[in-house]
Amino acid sequence: MTGVEDLYLGVIKAGIARHPRSLQKRIGPSEIGNPCDRQILHKLNGDDEPNRGPAWKPAVGTAVHDQLERWFDAANRGGGDVDHMEWVTEWQVTVGQILGVDITGHSDLFHVPTGTVIDHKVVGPSQLTKYRLHGPSQVYRVQAHLYASGFTRDGGWGPARHVAIAFLPRDGELDKTVFWTEPHDPHIAAVAMVRANRLATLLSVVGIDAALTASPLCDDQWCMWCKAEKREQHRAAGGSLFLDIGELAVVPEPTPGPLRALEQPAPAPIPIREDVKVTCDACGLPMRHSVTVGGFTTHPTCDSPQTSAARPIHAVPQPAAPAPPVNLFDR
What we know:
Distance between the termini: 105 Å
Strand order of the largest sheet: 1-2-3-4-5
Shape: elongated
Number of domains: 2
Number of helices: 10
Number of strands: 7
CATH topology of the largest domain: Lambda Exonuclease, Chain A
Helix content: 25-40%
Structural class: alpha+beta
């Protein structure tokens, strides 16, 4: 890279690293609903996230959030008068407590007349299609209901009655936006906080190492913590360095052993009874038993009209010949 290019990218990387979202260590509403127990344990323990390089996509989303805040602030009727406020932007709410410590977060948007909490998500094309077909992930859904519970608990803007997530296209036009909404369910937020407190209690009693041992690695391919730990375990076991790209594992074929001939049972020997003396019908001399067993009654060299015993041949029954077909055209 050129010198100017290094300076240019260096300013962007430094800005991303200094952003409050990158420096945040305490767990927040956007992470409490994560299905991976290990990720929550790491966050509760204050561990640094695995290095994944500059978080450019989240930085783009943050920039869009900043612009949206300005637009919705300007859209308030009454010039920002509290009594006539319609849109509340970037409002800090307390979503609950973990072991007595308040957990706070900043809600993107709250529509006061309808009591709707709205969260902005700037996503790519594949994610946009997924959310259009299947709705938000559990992480996003829990986050929205936690914010709604926070607004209801604070009470300053009235109770939250609905939650919504606006999935804005990062690479497309605005008409591709997916707007998901559902009624606020306080039970969803309460269950998430109970789980977070359970994991925090486990961490405080046994420590991070034992807590991680008791929590299996998750199957989410995007989980930074489990992905990194799986890679380290695989390398420690002497596996491929390319586990994270999902290559096919090569299983060595077993070495074939020496080929062995099929063992056939040896035929039973024909007993030779030398005590039985059989004489030739032509010359009268004794004959070997091996010759007489074949049915011969004379030596092969002796002149005899019959050199072997007669053997009856049984006739094989033959099927009756079918009657010839009748030609109807001869009539």
